[in-house]
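wait is this the right file?? whatever heres the structure
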């Protein structure tokens, strides 16, 4: 008998200037927050966050995140939380900061508040973390019993971040429906231990609809630091719709291939999560034997927002076929999600599809 499972965060707040509400909202959950952020993000948000907590009469502990969502970093910061009797963890920043925050809160058995400063990934709303080694190699997922208690995303902060982060989030979000459809077709499991619900599929469909409908205009406005209704819609698609859609709809090949790319060395590691997922999505579409017309639609969208669709743009133009097979080997690891597309596709076939995306994109100028 099928088991359908859906879960979501406790509360989501989005809009210009909402960072000022962080102290008040935190006070509804706890009194001794541990705030983590990297040095650059903290330099941008410190004044607003400090003022927000001051207005709420809450003292907080700040600790700098060192940049990698690794078990060593999680353990280090968990000890700091214990020493300061933290009763809530607040992550401020991008995907790895937020994933680390969720892991720390799980270790401490506290609520977690997520404050994305970019719309670059769908990590904020999920009940899992992507874990890497200290060297940045994907090692697995860490799952939690619940989603974040609160997400606060300030649109004004988001549009003042580098535009590449905004477009990377769009690329990550564009994988949502592509992967959810594969999970449905294979009767696979989503990320919360069941089959996708009707709600999760509807959310994934709305996510893709928003991106194709408003993506280019939102990209142009955000490039100038302007918040428009289109920008707000895409922020929600990147953050909430994509998060709910991937977790409840499930992942398949696109994200598994992203993880496979971590087996390579070189400049590919300078690319964002979303940039690598974009290419992984195109590889999945090739492996699914997607129509030429549909494939061109995705390629054209990615090109219009500056995402990589060729091996040169992925810094892989000189990569050997044997190394691309290694990508396929890691992607098809039994602990990853590739089987939600198919458990019959070989690493060699994945390597060939990676090459095929390049040829199709090169011929689609």
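ok assuming it is, sequence goes like this
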């Amino acid at each position: 008998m099928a088991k359908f499972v859906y879960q979501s965060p406790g509360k989501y707040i989005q809009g210009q200037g909402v960072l000022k509400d962080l102290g008040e909202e935190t006070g509804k959950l706890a009194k001794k927050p541990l705030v983590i952020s990297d040095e650059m993000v903290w330099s941008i948000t410190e004044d607003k966050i400090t003022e927000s907590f001051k207005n709420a009469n809450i003292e907080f502990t700040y600790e700098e995140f060192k940049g990698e969502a690794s078990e060593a970093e999680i353990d280090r910061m968990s000890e700091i939380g214990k020493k300061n009797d933290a009763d809530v963890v607040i992550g401020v920043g991008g995907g790895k900061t937020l994933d680390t925050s969720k892991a720390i809160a799980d270790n401490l058995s506290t609520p977690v508040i997520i404050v994305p400063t970019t719309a670059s990934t769908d990590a904020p709303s999920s009940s899992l973390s992507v874990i890497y080694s200290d060297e940045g190699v994907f090692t697995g997922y860490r799952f939690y019993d619940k989603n974040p208690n609160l997400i606060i995303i300030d649109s004004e902060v988001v549009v003042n971040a580098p535009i590449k982060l905004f477009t990377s989030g769009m690329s990550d979000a564009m994988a949502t429906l592509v992967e959810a459809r594969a999970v449905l077709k294979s009767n696979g499991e989503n990320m919360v231990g069941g089959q996708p619900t009707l709600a999760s599929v509807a959310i994934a469909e709305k996510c893709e609809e928003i991106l194709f409908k408003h993506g280019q205009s939102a990209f142009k406005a955000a490039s100038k630091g302007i918040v428009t209704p289109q920008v707000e819609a895409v922020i929600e698609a990147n953050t909430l719709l994509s998060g709910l859609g991937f977790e409840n709809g499930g992942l398949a090949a696109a994200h598994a291939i992203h993880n496979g790319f971590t087996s390579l060395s070189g400049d590919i590691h300078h690319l964002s999560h979303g940039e690598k997922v974009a290419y992984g999505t195109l590889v999945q579409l090739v492996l699914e034997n997607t129509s030429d017309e549909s494939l061109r639609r995705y390629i054209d969208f990615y090109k219009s927002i500056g995402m990589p669709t060729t091996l040169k743009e992925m810094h892989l133009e000189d990569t050997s076929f044997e190394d691309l097979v290694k990508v396929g080997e890691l992607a098809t690891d039994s602990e990853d999600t590739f089987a939600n597309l198919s458990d019959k596709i070989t690493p060699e076939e994945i390597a060939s599809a990676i090459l095929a995306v390049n040829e199709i994109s090169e011929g689609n100028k």
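The longest strand covers residues 88-93. so i think its the right one actually
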